[in-house]
Design a protein that fits this description.
About 55% of the residues lie in helices and about 15% in strands. By secondary structure, the chain is of the alpha+beta class. The protein folds into 2 domains: about 270 residues, 2-Layer Sandwich (Beta Polymerase, domain 2), CATH 3.30.460; about 60 residues, Magnesium transport protein CorA, transmembrane region (Methane Monooxygenase Hydroxylase, Chain G, domain 1), CATH 1.20.58.340. Strands 1, 2, 3, 4, 5, 6, 7 and 8 form an 8-stranded mixed β-sheet that branches. The two termini are about 40 Å apart.
């Protein structure tokens, strides 16, 4: 299993694909949803309303700039949004919060990672994604159906819901990793081979990459949970504490899996070393048995006219019998010592 920074393995987002922007304005009794390809975004004048601007694609800088101009996002933040290799972080600009996180999704024998940028302002939330497909569909469905607390809460609650959906996606990846680790452990105990070693190192690389995403995210969520920003209401802080607990759980699971894989690698190396020792033991026993036999054969193979038993009619069978007796005696001795 390996981690890829693209939703499509080995590929990148096509520059020709248009960036789509979905704007959802809502309050407890009203919801309006609009989709643009080259938007002129305007925040609703009616209050209390929450606006969610979901940008699908960050490769078109004109669209990113248009979104930033609509709500007053700093150029440095827009630069961070376009640069999809950001370390998970949080930045407080006073009138808005910027959070960069990694969104993970399980795949066929691997999992994918992409950067998601979230901006929380007064009455609005903006999400920037690299590729189509995300973990926010359930939130959209809840908004459209008016289910739960989303429609009756403010922008900070929507911001929490989006962040919580991203963190929950980590558990699906963790579960798949756990299944792969169990499979590799069984292979190590049963019959490890070179492919098993490759699977171990692939899992270790995936866990390292996952750790690089989780630990900075933990710091960012901890800062949100402390309630230092006026954009997050007191009643919403308890939900961010729940997200922080989930992040801690993911981080601890990753550390446990890393320790497990280190132990699995040690077991694999010990198993291979044990196999090699068994092979060397067998070869050593064979060589040890044949040393005296070679000596006897060498003595009776010398070309001398006068040698004991050289003209005896039973000389040859006796020489073979003595070799067999020596071999049997050595085997019995090795068995008595517990070497075989």
């Amino acid at each position: 299993m390996s981690l890829h920074d693209d939703r499509v393995t080995g590929g990148t987002t096509p520059r020709s694909r248009p960036v789509t922007v979905t704007v959802i304005d809502y309050d407890e009794s009203h919801l309006e949803e609009r989709t643009y390809t080259l938007p002129e975004i305007r925040l609703p004048a009616r209050r209390p309303a929450v606006t969610w601007i979901d940008v699908d694609g960050v490769h078109d800088t004109k669209v990113i700039q248009a979104v930033g101009d609509a709500v007053g996002i700093h150029p440095l933040t827009l630069e961070d949004i376009s640069n999809t290799r950001q370390r998970p972080k949080i930045e407080d600009y006073g009138d808005y919060l910027y959070v960069a996180v990694r969104m993970l999704a399980p795949g066929d024998g691997e999992f994918h990672s992409e950067q998601v940028s979230l901006v929380l302002g007064r009455g609005y939330v903006i999400s920037f994604q690299e590729h189509p497909g995300d973990v926010f569909e359930r939130i959209r469905e809840r908004l459209r159906a008016g289910a739960g607390r989303l429609r009756s809460e403010g922008a900070d609650y929507l911001f929490y819901a989006l962040l919580d959906a991203i963190v929950d996606g980590y558990f699906a990846v963790i579960e798949e990793l756990g299944e792969r680790i169990e499979t590799v452990e069984e292979e190590v105990v049963a019959d490890p081979d070179r492919e098993t070693l490759q699977a171990i190192y692939a899992l270790k690389r995936s866990l390292i990459a996952l750790r690089r995403s989780v630990w900075p995210l933990r710091e960012a969520v901890a800062q949100l949970e402390r309630g230092e920003s006026s954009l997050i209401g007191e009643q919403t802080l308890v939900y961010f504490r729940d997200v922080y607990d989930h992040t801690i759980e993911v981080a601890e699971t990753v550390e446990t899996y890393r320790d497990t894989m280190s132990g699995t690698l040690d077991v694999y190396l010990s198993s291979q070393s044990s196999k090699m020792n068994e092979i060397m033991k067998v070869l050593t026993i064979i060589a040890t048995i044949f040393i005296p036999l070679t000596f006897i054969a060498g003595v009776y193979g010398m070309n001398f006219a006068y040698m004991p038993e050289i003209s005896h009619p039973w000389g040859y069978p006796l020489a073979l019998a003595s070799m067999a007796a020596v071999a049997v005696a050595m085997l019995l001795y090795f068995r008595k010592k517990g070497w075989i």
